[in-house]
Inverse folding.
C-alpha cells in the first residue's frame, strides 16, 4: 500500500491540485440532494400554518391517537417482518452458498425475480390470492374442504397479512447480503478448522456462522428499515383492513386541505429511528472489514447434504412460491380472465385487459416512457457518482474523503416518503421549481439509490486488493493506466450490477414518486397505484407484467453490452 | 354560485314533494326553460375554426373522477370524431383530483385542460379562486335546464348518478338482501360489507354528507362497528362485489353496478328505502389550460347529444340534456326516492367530514 503513494518523490508543482474542486463539487451536489430537503423538513415540522415557531405538531403527533396508533403499528410491522425475513432468508442463503443443494443458479435467479418485483405489485397479487372471499387460494381451500362460503384460510387484509407480504419482498435483501457474505468467506479458514480436527458442523458453527453474523445483522436491519418505510403495500392492504401505518398516514396528510407541517413532523420519527438503528449497527459491528478478493484466494467449500439435499430444495421452493410462483400465477390469471379472481377457463378467457392497457388506457405510453427514461438516467448518473465517490474514498485520493463518504451514505437514513416530502417542500416553490418536471423524480431516485450504489462499489474497490494495483504501479504504470488495465476490468461486474440495481430500484419505487408526481410525470408505479384505487385489477396485472418485462429486458441487455462481459444481477 | 343553487332549490321545490324531512328531487321531471336565469356569456357552437385551432394543439389533458373505462371511452369517441387530437385521461378519486389540481396550481404547473369531477363543491372553490374559463357550449344553452350550468359559463353538469347499495347475488338471496341503510346495521352483515372513502372519492364525500344530514353521525358510528372493508374510489365497491370479495356494498356508484350486471356479473343494485344520495358531476375548462382550444372543443363535445347519449347508453348514468333518450328498461330517476345534493353544504362541511370519518373508521 505504502509503495504506491503518489506524493513520494514526484514533485507536482506545475499541476493544479484538483482534489479541492472535486471535493467541493461533489459535496455541494450531495448537500443539495440531502441537506436542503431535510432542512425544509425540519423547518416545516417546527412551524404552524402562519409560519410561527411551535412544538404543537410534535405534540399532536405523540398524543393524538390518530397518529400514535400508526406509529405503534409500524413498529410491530417492522420488527416482525425483520424477524421473519431472517428466519427464512438465513437458512436459504446458507443452503445456496455453502451446501451442494441442486439448482443453485435457478434459486438465485428466482430470488432475483422476487427482488425485482415491486412490493406494491406483490401486494396486489396477494390480494388476488388471499383476499378472504375472492382470493384464489381461499377458493381452492373451500373447494377442497367444502367449507361454507364465508370461511377462509387466509385474510390478506390484516396486520399479519401485511407483515407476510412485506416479508415476501424484503427477504431478498437479507438473502443476498448473507449469501454474498458466505460466498466470500474463503475456504482457507474452514480448511484450517478441518485440519485442526473440526468436523463439518463444528467448522460451520465456529468459523462460518460467526463470519456471517455481521451480514445477518445488517440484513435484519435492512429488512426492518424496508418494512418501516414501505408505502405501497400498506396503502394497498392496510387501508381496506382499517388501519394506517406511518407512511400511509403521512401520505393521507397531503389530502385536501394539505397539512405539510404535520406530515413533516410525522416524518421525523422515521428519520430519527433510522439514524439511531444505523448508528447501533455501526457500534455493534465496529470497523470490521475483510479484503477477500486478493491475489490469492481459496474457494469456499460446500457441505455435502447427501439425501437431505432434496428436502432442502423442497424447503427453498416452498419459500419461493410465496414471492414468485403464486403471485405471478395470479397476475397471469387475472390478465386473461374476465373476472380477476376467477380461474381462466374457455368461457371467461379474454384479451380485453391487454387491449385496454395498450389501446385504450391513455396514460400507458407516457408512464412507460417516463419510467424507462428515469430508470436509465438515474442508474447512469447514480452509478457514475457512486463510482467516483467510491474511488476517492477507498483510495483516499483526496483530502476530506471521509466527509464525502458520509454524505454519500447519509440518504440511507432517509425513508423514501420522507425524502419525497422534503423534496416537495424544497422544490415546489421559487427560486427553484422542479416539481412538475422529471428532474425532481430524478433527484429523488438518485438520492435513494446512492447509499447502496456507493456501498456496493466501495466494497468492490476494497475487494480489489491494492496488491494488484501496486504491482502495476511498481512495474511502471501510471495511476490512470493502472485504473484502466487493472482496476476497471476487475470492477466491471460490480459496475453493471450497480447500474442494474439502481434501475430496478427506480422501477420499484413508489413512496417518493407518490409525493412528487404530476399528471405529466407519472411513472408506472404511480399508474398502478391509481388503478388499484379504482379496483381495475385486470389492467394492473397487464401493466405489472409489462413492468417486469421491461426490467428483465434492460437487465439482460445491459449485461450483453459488448466488452462488458457477463454479470449477474446481484447486490452486495 | 349561491344564487344558482337557490334558484335550483326553487325549481326543486316547485316540482318535488317534501315528505318526512327528505327532499325528493326529480331529475327526469319537466324543467323550466333556460331563460329563467340571466346569462352573462354567449353560447358557442363547434366551429371549423375551433376544430382547426384544436388540431394545431393536437392534445389535451382530461382530469376526471369517472370510472376509468368510461373516461377512456369518451376519450376514444372524441379522438375518433376529431382525429389528430389526443386525449390523455388523468383519473383518480375526485378528492385526489382536487388535491392534485390545487397542488399543481400552487406550484404554477398548468397541466389540466378540462376537469370532470364527482364533487360539485370543488367548482365553488375553483370559481372562487378564479381558475375557471367561461365557456358555454351551444347545446348546453339550448337543451340544459338552467340550474345545471353556471350563468357565467364556468361549469356545466355533465352527468348525474347515485350512490346506492348493492349485493352479490351469488352470496345473498334477493329476499335477504338489505333494503335500507338501517338494514346494513344488522349483525348478519358484520365483516361482509365494502364501502368507499370520502377523503378520496367525491361520490362518497357527497353521499356521506347526505347520509349525515338525513341519518346523522350515529348511523356511521354504528356502521363502522360492522367491520366494513374500506376501499377508496366509489368505483371500487361495485368491483369488489362482482369479485365476490364482499357480499354487500354500503355505498358506491350505482352505474358501475348496472354496467357489471349488464355484463352478466352476479350483482344487483338496491336503492335504499330512506332515500338515495344523488351526485352531480360538473365539468369545466381551466383558464390556464395549456391547450385552450382543444379544451373548449372537448368541453363542447362532451355536452352534445352524441356524447350525452353515450353517457346514458354506455356509462349508465343520467344526462340532463333534454333530447337524450333513456335506455329502454332502465330505472328512471323519478321512480327512485332521492336525496338532494348540496354542493354548497359539502364545500362547508368537507373538512369536518374527512376528520370525523377518519376518527370513526380509523382510516
Amino acid at each position: 500500500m505504502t509503495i504506491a503513494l503518489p506524493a513520494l518523490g514526484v514533485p507536482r508543482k506545475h499541476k493544479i491540485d484538483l482534489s479541492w474542486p472535486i471535493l467541493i463539487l461533489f459535496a455541494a451536489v450531495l448537500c443539495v440532494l440531502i441537506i436542503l430537503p431535510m432542512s425544509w423538513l425540519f423547518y416545516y415540522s417546527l412551524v404552524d400554518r402562519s409560519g410561527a415557531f411551535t412544538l404543537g405538531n410534535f405534540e399532536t403527533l405523540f398524543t393524538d391517537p390518530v397518529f400514535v396508533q400508526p406509529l405503534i403499528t409500524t413498529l410491530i410491522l417492522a420488527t416482525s417482518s425483520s424477524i421473519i425475513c431472517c428466519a427464512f432468508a438465513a437458512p436459504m442463503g446458507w443452503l445456496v452458498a455453502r451446501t451442494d443443494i441442486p439448482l443453485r443458479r435457478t434459486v438465485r435467479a428466482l430470488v432475483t425475480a422476487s427482488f425485482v418485483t415491486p412490493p406494491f405489485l406483490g401486494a396486489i397479487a396477494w390480494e388476488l390470492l388471499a383476499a378472504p372471499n375472492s382470493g384464489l387460494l381461499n377458493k381452492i381451500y373451500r373447494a377442497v374442504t367444502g367449507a361454507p362460503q364465508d370461511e377462509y384460510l387466509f385474510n390478506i387484509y390484516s396486520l399479519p397479512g401485511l407483515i407476510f407480504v412485506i416479508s415476501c419482498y424484503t427477504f431478498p435483501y437479507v438473502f443476498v447480503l448473507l449469501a454474498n457474505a458466505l460466498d466470500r468467506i474463503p475456504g482457507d479458514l474452514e480448511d484450517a478448522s478441518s485440519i485442526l480436527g473440526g468436523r463439518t458442523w463444528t467448522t460451520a458453527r465456529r468459523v462460518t456462522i460467526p463470519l456471517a453474523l455481521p451480514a445477518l445483522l445488517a440484513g435484519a436491519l435492512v429488512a426492518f428499515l424496508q418494512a418501516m418505510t414501505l408505502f405501497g403495500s400498506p396503502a394497498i392492504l392496510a387501508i381496506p383492513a382499517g388501519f394506517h401505518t406511518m407512511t400511509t398516514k403521512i401520505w393521507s396528510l397531503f389530502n385536501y386541505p394539505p397539512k405539510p407541517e404535520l406530515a413533516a413532523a410525522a416524518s421525523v420519527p422515521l428519520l430519527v429511528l433510522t439514524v439511531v438503528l444505523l448508528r447501533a449497527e455501526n457500534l455493534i459491528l465496529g470497523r470490521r472489514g475483510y479484503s477477500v478478493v486478493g491475489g490469492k484466494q481459496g474457494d469456499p467449500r460446500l457441505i455435502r447434504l447427501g439425501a437431505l439435499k432434496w428436502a432442502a430444495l423442497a424447503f427453498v421452493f416452498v419459500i419461493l412460491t410465496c414471492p414468485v410462483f403464486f403471485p405471478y400465477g395470479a397476475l397471469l390469471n387475472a390478465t386473461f380472465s374476465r373476472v380477476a379472481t376467477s380461474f381462466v377457463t374457455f368461457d371467461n378467457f379474454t384479451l380485453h385487459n391487454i387491449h385496454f392497457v395498450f389501446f385504450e388506457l391513455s396514460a400507458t405510453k407516457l408512464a412507460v416512457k417516463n419510467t424507462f427514461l428515469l430508470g436509465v438516467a438515474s442508474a447512469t448518473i447514480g452509478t457514475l457518482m457512486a463510482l467516483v465517490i467510491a474511488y476517492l474514498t477507498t483510495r483516499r485520493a483526496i483530502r476530506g474523503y471521509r466527509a464525502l463518504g458520509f454524505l454519500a451514505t447519509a440518504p440511507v437514513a432517509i425513508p423514501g416518503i420522507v425524502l419525497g416530502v422534503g423534496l416537495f417542500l424544497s422544490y415546489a416553490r421559487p427560486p427553484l421549481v422542479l416539481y412538475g418536471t422529471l428532474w425532481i423524480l430524478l433527484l429523488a431516485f438518485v438520492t435513494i439509490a446512492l447509499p447502496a450504489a456507493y456501498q456496493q462499489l466501495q466494497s468492490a474497490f476494497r475487494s480489489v486488493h491494492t496488491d494488484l494495483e501496486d504491482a502495476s504501479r511498481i512495474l511502471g504504470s501510471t495511476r490512470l493506466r493502472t485504473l484502466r488495465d487493472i482496476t476497471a476490468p476487475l470492477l466491471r461486474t460490480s459496475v453493471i450490477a450497480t447500474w442494474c440495481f439502481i434501475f430496478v430500484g427506480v422501477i420499484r419505487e413508489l413512496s417518493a414518486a407518490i409525493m412528487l408526481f404530476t399528471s405529466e410525470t407519472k411513472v408506472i408505479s404511480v399508474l398502478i397505484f391509481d388503478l388499484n384505487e379504482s379496483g381495475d385489477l385486470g389492467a394492473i396485472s397487464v401493466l405489472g407484467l409489462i413492468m417486469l418485462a421491461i426490467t428483465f429486458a434492460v437487465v439482460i441487455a445491459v449485461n450483453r453490452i459488448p466488452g462488458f462481459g457477463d454479470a449477474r444481477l446481484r447486490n452486495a | 354560485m349561491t344564487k344558482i343553487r337557490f334558484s335550483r332549490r326553487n325549481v326543486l321545490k316547485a316540482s318535488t314533494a317534501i315528505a318526512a324531512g327528505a327532499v325528493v328531487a326529480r331529475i327526469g321531471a319537466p324543467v323550466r326553460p333556460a331563460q329563467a336565469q340571466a346569462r352573462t356569456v354567449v353560447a358557442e357552437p363547434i366551429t371549423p375554426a375551433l376544430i382547426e385551432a384544436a388540431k394545431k394543439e393536437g392534445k389535451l389533458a382530461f382530469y376526471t373522477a369517472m370510472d376509468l373505462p368510461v373516461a377512456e371511452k369518451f376519450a376514444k369517441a372524441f379522438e375518433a370524431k376529431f382525429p389528430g387530437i389526443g386525449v390523455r385521461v388523468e383519473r383518480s378519486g375526485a378528492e385526489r383530483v382536487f388535491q392534485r389540481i390545487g397542488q399543481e396550481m400552487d406550484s404554477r404547473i398548468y397541466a389540466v385542460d378540462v376537469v370532470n369531477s364527482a364533487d360539485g363543491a370543488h367548482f365553488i372553490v375553483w370559481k372562487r379562486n378564479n381558475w375557471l374559463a367561461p365557456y358555454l357550449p351551444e347545446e348546453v344553452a339550448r337543451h340544459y335546464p338552467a340550474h345545471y350550468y353556471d350563468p357565467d359559463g364556468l361549469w356545466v353538469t355533465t352527468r348525474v348518478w347515485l350512490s346506492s347499495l348493492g349485493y352479490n347475488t351469488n352470496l345473498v338471496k334477493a329476499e335477504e338482501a338489505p333494503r335500507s341503510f338501517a338494514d346494513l346495521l344488522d349483525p348478519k352483515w358484520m365483516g361482509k360489507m365494502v364501502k368507499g372513502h370520502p377523503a378520496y372519492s367525491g361520490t362518497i364525500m357527497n353521499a356521506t354528507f347526505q347520509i349525515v344530514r338525513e341519518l346523522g353521525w350515529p348511523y356511521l358510528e354504528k356502521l363502522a362497528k360492522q367491520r366494513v372493508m374500506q376501499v377508496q374510489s366509489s368505483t371500487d365497491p361495485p368491483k369488489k362485489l362482482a369479485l365476490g370479495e364482499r357480499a354487500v356494498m354500503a355505498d358506491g356508484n350505482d352505474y358501475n353496478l348496472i354496467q357489471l350486471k349488464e355484463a352478466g356479473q352476479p350483482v344487483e343494485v338496491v336503492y335504499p328505502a330512506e332515500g338515495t344520495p344523488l351526485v352531480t358531476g360538473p365539468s369545466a375548462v381551466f383558464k390556464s389550460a395549456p391547450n385552450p382550444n382543444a379544451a373548449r372543443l372537448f368541453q363542447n363535445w362532451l355536452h352534445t347529444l352524441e356524447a350525452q347519449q353515450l353517457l346514458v347508453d354506455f356509462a349508465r348514468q343520467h344526462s340532463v340534456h333534454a333530447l337524450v333518450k333513456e335506455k329502454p328498461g332502465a330505472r328512471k330517476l323519478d321512480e327512485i326516492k332521492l336525496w338532494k345534493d348540496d354542493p354548497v353544504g359539502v364545500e362547508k362541511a368537507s373538512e369536518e367530514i374527512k376528520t370525523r370519518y377518519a376518527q370513526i373508521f380509523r382510516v
In short: Confidence is low (pLDDT under 50) at residues 1-36 of chain B.
